[in-house]
Amino acid sequence: MRSQIPKEGEHVVAPDRILLQTDGQAIMPDVTGWSLRDVMKLADLLQLKPSFIGSGYVFRQNISPGAVVKQHDYIIVELAKPSHIDEKQQTDTEQQVDGPVD
Q: Which residues form a coiled coil (predicted)?
């Protein structure tokens, strides 16, 4: 294991996430539903450059889950209040199905 958050000896309170970085390539997790605070922890651990749109919880991320990430990559996440996440995801799904209009 290369690094972890929280650091050794720090107390963890539910529902805090525990993030571990192992040897090898860093793989982007699916951060859907994560809080801004949790994404900041991930960005710190992997040395990513974060950018945030909105407030609340993640409903969209620019780096696909499972993609290899490198230090100083930009991660952009869009956040929404829990009551609006389903609505925004439904809009995304409709746009993907319909496709662009020519």
A: none
Backbone angles phi, psi at 40, to 5 degrees: -60, -40
The CA distance from 99 to 53, in Å, is 23
Would you tell me how many other CB atoms lie within 10 Å of the CB of residue 46? 20
Instruction: Specify the 3-state DSSP secondary structure of 75.
Output: strand
- Cα–Cα distance, 11 to 59 (Å, whole number): 28
Query: Percentage of residues in the chain with pLDDT exceeding 70?
Result: 85
Residue 55, domain member (yes or no): yes
Structure tokens at 101: 């209009």
Q: What is the pTM assigned to this prediction?
A: 0.77
Q: Say whether pLDDT at 55 is over 70.
A: yes
